[in-house]
Structure formats: structure tokens, C-alpha cells
Amino acid sequence: MKTIYILLSFCLLLSLLACGDRDVVKPTEQTTLFLRNKGADMPIWISGNSQSNKIVLFVHGGPGDCAMCYRYYLKGIEKDAMVAYWDQRVAGSSSGKVSESTLRYTQFGEDMELVVKLLKKQYPQAKIYLLGHSFGVELVWQFLTTGNNQQQVSGAMVVNGMYSYYNWLYNVREWALREARLKKNTEAETYLLANPVTPENTATIDWEGIYRWMYELDGNPVSLFDNNKYVINYAFNSPNTALAQFTHGKAYMYYGEVDSRTFEKGPLLKNIHIPVALFWGVKDGVVPMEVGRATKPLLTNARVTEVDFADSWHEPFVTETDKFTQAVKSFVR
Question: Where are the chain's structural domains?
Fold first, then answer.
């Protein structure tokens, strides 16, 4: 009887080990890198399937947002690829003594070049795919239209982001005016009619007034903090802190008032030859769908994939997480 018991226990142990082997089929990478450049100390957390030899570099929005605080929604990608979460200068958990004079597109682009080189040094066999969201899309275009940078990556996914300040603000105002009329908000309609956006006035127009009305008209009613699980994860399972997260905004005064108003990459998009995916939350007022529709015709030499998220605003990875994850995986495959 004792012998049979031992044999049964041994068989059970083998069975459990076999099940465990089937579950653990994808080695998981957990590495932290740091980039120091022009006064900024920027962390890069790499997590995911190291066997894939593929890296999705998440270029977060803001400016001044964070990367790892969105991992809650992006973690599904890690089953098929490594994801590199990079906190930009003066953003998230980055630190250092950063001069405001470095908060320019050219400097962000240089930082991104160094991040890509660091990843390629750490993982020489891996292909790198960019995943830019909102302000991060501007950095993706800055990177891809500079020198030979696009040769360093295998593709780019852009999520609700602009290529042209004028095109963006024009469409935000049009979106807000349309919604004001639908909602019969005469105060908003009067303001927006009095403030048309033209190529000539982008340097001086009150963009913040237009932007505020867009939000008042439900341009992005989604709040990350409505999700209790997200809040708990952010508070206890993220390297970012509220102190780090919300003390960077004042450093972007020059960016918002000068550098961003001259941002224009439209004529350069024809020089991009790598595959590009346009992911868009259809309901978005922050960067309206019309911006995405205007982007595709400019990418005349790139193979372009489009995925619309009909139930989403500015963050489709929050409102349609599973569909977004699958779209990223499909593109990377």
C-alpha cells in the first residue's frame, strides 16, 4: 500500500511539473536601464517575452506624463514581445537637473535616438517597434524624419497624435464647433466662431480657450482614476509617484507657447519607408479623427495600417484594451 502511495505521489508530481512546463513557455525579461543625457536621468523599464526578439518602445504622451503608469493597460503586449517603458526628460520618474532650454523637439528626438541605441546594444538581435501616444506621436515623427533614424526601427504605431500644429488645432476647433451645435451650447459656439484657426494666426491664437471648450464638450471624458484596479496598481505597483508625476508641468511653458506652435512634419512624412499603423479613438476631441484621416495620404511611401476604435476617445488602450492589445500584436507580427 505504501509503495502504491509513493508511486501515485510521484506520478502526480510529474503531472504538475509537466503542466508547469506548458504554462511557462515564454521567458520573461525584467530589466531596468538608465539613460543620462543633457542633465536628465531617464529610466527605461523592459518587461516581456525575451524569446520574441521584438521590442515595443512605448513613447508616452504629455508632455510630462509617464510610461510605467500605463503598463496596467499595455501589459498584454508583453506576452508576445518585450515592452520598453521610457520616461522622457522631466516626465514620470525621470530626474536630474534639466534646463528648460532643452525642452525642445530636437532634444526629445536626440534622447529617443539614444534610447533606441541603448536598446539595440542591450538586445542586438531584437527588432524595435515604436508605439507613440499623443505627444509621443510628435516625438515619433521627429525621430523618423531626422537623418537615418528610421533605419534603426522596424515599424511605428501612432495613437491619436498630430503631425502638424495647425492641422491639429484647426480640427480641434472644428470638432468643438460641431459638438457645440449638436449640444446647443450657444456660449461655446459664439466663442469658437469668433476664434477661427488659420495658418497665419497659429502663433498668437488662444489655443487654450479652444482646448478648454473641447474638453467642456466631452472631448475626452475618460478618467484613468475611475478604474479602482488601475488606481491600486498605480499606487502600489508602479515606480511613479504623485510627487514625481505632477511637478513637471511648469517646465513646459516654452514648449506650449513657442516650440509646439511651429511643429510641422507633414511635408516630411513622404520620406518614411517603414510600416506605419494609425490607431485612433473615433470619439476623440483632443486629437480628432480627422487628423488621422489627414495623416495617411502623407505617408505615400509607407505601408499603412489603420485601426479605428469606435468606442474610444483619446486613450483607446484604456477603453478598448483587448482590441488595442491585439492590434499591436498583429502589427508587430
Answer: 28-164+222-332
